[in-house]
Write a structure and sequence with these properties.
The chain is mainly alpha-helical. 61% of the residues lie in helices and 0% in strands.
C-alpha cells in the first residue's frame, strides 16, 4: 500500500503520468507507426527495450516496472504485426513442414517394373569370381575411320 501512496507525491508525478500513458496504450490498442515498428522489430531494438524494462525494475516503482514489462511485450508484438514478421512466422512453412510434404509426395507404390527387375537373374552372382569370357569381340569394318586408340 505504501508503494501506491508514494506515487501520488509531487516528486513521483512523472511516474504516475507514465503509468497512466502505459495503461492507455495497453487498453486503447494503438497501432505502432511503421518507422518505429521497423526499429523495434530488430535485434538491437528488442535489446534496447529489454534494457529499458530492466532499468524500470531497478529505478522506479515496482507497479510501474511490471506495467512496463507488459507494455514492452505488447510493443514488440504490435511492431511485428506492422512489419509483417508475425505473418511470416504464422503462414510461411518451416523446413520440417516442407520436408514432410516432400516425403509424402515421394512415396510410390511397388511397381511392376521393380518386380520384374528383382526377379531377373543377375549376370554375376555376388561373391563369385568373374571368369574369362568364352567369346572374342570382333571389330567391324572401319570404312576408312581410324580406331579410337590410334595415334595421330
Amino acid at each position: 500500500m505504501e508503494k501506491i501512496s508514494s506515487l501520488f507525491k509531487k516528486e513521483k508525478m512523472g511516474e504516475l503520468l507514465l503509468m497512466i500513458l502505459f495503461i492507455i496504450y495497453l487498453i486503447m490498442g494503438y497501432k505502432t507507426p511503421e518507422s518505429l515498428a521497423n526499429v523495434v522489430d530488430s535485434i538491437p531494438g528488442k535489446f534496447v527495450i529489454l534494457l529499458i524494462v530492466v532499468a524500470m525494475f531497478v529505478y522506479t516503482n515496482p507497479l510501474l516496472a511490471i506495467l512496463s514489462l507488459f507494455v514492452a511485450f505488447e510493443l514488440i508484438r504490435r511492431s511485428s504485426k506492422v512489419t509483417g514478421i508475425d505473418a511470416l512466422k504464422k503462414y510461411a512453412p518451416s523446413e520440417e513442414k516442407k520436408m514432410s510434404q516432400f516425403t509424402a509426395f515421394n512415396q510410390f507404390p511397388y511397381t511392376l517394373e521393380q518386380e520384374v527387375i528383382k526377379k531377373m537373374a543377375p549376370i554375376v552372382k555376388p561373391g563369385s569370381s568373374i571368369s574369362k569370357a568364352s567369346y572374342k569381340p570382333l571389330l567391324e569394318k572401319l570404312y576408312d575411320a581410324s580406331p579410337l586408340d590410334a595415334s595421330n
